[in-house]
Specification:
The protein is α+β, with helices and mostly antiparallel strands. The protein has 4 helices and 6 strands, in the order E-E-E-H-E-H-H-E-E-H. Helix content is 27%, strand content 18%. The radius of gyration is 14 Å and the shape is globular.
Length: 162
Amino acid sequence: MSTIYDFTAERMDGTEQSFADFEGQVLLVVNTASKCGFTPQFEGLEVLNEQYKDQGLTIIGFPCNQFGGQDPGSNEEIGAFCQKNYGVSFPMMAKVDVNGSDAHPIFKWLKEQKGGLLTDGIKWNFTKFLIGSDGQVLERYAPTTKPEALKADIEKALAVAK
């Protein structure tokens, strides 16, 4: 059985990130966009990051331009936007596809682990996946689920991780 630790992804700076580096941590993986109605969720994600990072939570953003062309910029532009407008300090990966034949392998795996309501496909920006410290998907959240609504599940996952 595979875990998220079996994957790698390109960071915004072009370097390769092995997810094995996050082994034993609780992860929140989010497909993001800079020009979306849900973009203000970056603020809530950063609040979660600040609140729980010292307890073992790592939030990882994956920009995606598949939904309404809402993240058309370069990786550099997206990173600067997130930092300037929302103070994002959690890791941001290079832009990826989350659906279709070119979907990033992490998102193919995430969707296999936790399918959606009607289809397994990601329906919009800011779909969130909570991964336990064992590298397995615990929960999938809809784009409309605000980051602050995840606190109880994050705290439960962090308690198990200790």
